[in-house]
C-alpha cells in the first residue's frame, strides 16, 4: 500500500511553523527534519564571528 505525501510549495514551507524549535529543510516538496547543531559547529561559528568582528572593528571592544 502506498501512502500519498502532501508536497509543500516554497510559500507553504516559508509559512510553516509547528510550534517547536525543530528546523526543517524542503526536499522535493517534503519536510525533512535537520539534526541539531553540534557543540563543535557552535564553537567554530562563534570563533569565526569573533574573528570577523575583530577585523571589521579592530579598535573597539565587542560586545559593547
Short characterization:
It is built from two helices and two strands. The protein is α+β, with helices and mostly antiparallel strands.
Biggest β-sheet strands, sense, barrel: 2 strands, antiparallel
Given the helix and strand composition, which structural class is it? Answer: alpha+beta
- Strand tally is 2
Distance between the termini: 60 Å
* Unreliable runs: none
Spatial arrangement of strands, main beta sheet: 1-2
What is the global morphology? elongated
Helix content: 25-40%
> How are helices and strands ordered from N to C?
HEEH
**Averaged pLDDT, please?**
86
Strand content: 5-15%
**For the CA atoms, what is the radius of gyration?**
19 Å
Number of helices: 2
Can you tell me about this structure?
By secondary structure, the chain is of the alpha+beta class. It is built from 2 helices and 2 strands, in the order H-E-E-H. It has helices at 10-15, 39-56; strands at residues 24-27, 30-33. It has a two-stranded antiparallel sheet. It is elongated, with a radius of gyration of 19 Å. It starts with 9 loop residues before the first helix and ends in an 8-residue tail after the last helix. The mean pLDDT is 86.
Key terms:
alpha+beta; two-stranded antiparallel ribbon; 2 helices; elongated
Which secondary structure elements does this structure contain, and how are they paired or packed?
Blueprint: H1 10-15, E1 24-27, E2 30-33, H2 39-56
Antiparallel strand pairs: 1-2
Amino acid at each position: 500500500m502506498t501512502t500519498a505525501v502532501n508536497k509543500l510549495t516554497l510559500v507553504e514551507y516559508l509559512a510553516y511553523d509547528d510550534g517547536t524549535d525543530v528546523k526543517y529543510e524542503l526536499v522535493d516538496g517534503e519536510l525533512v527534519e535537520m539534526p541539531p547543531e553540534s557543540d563543535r559547529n557552535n564553537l567554530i561559528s562563534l570563533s569565526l564571528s569573533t574573528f570577523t568582528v575583530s577585523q571589521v572593528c579592530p579598535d573597539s571592544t565587542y560586545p559593547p
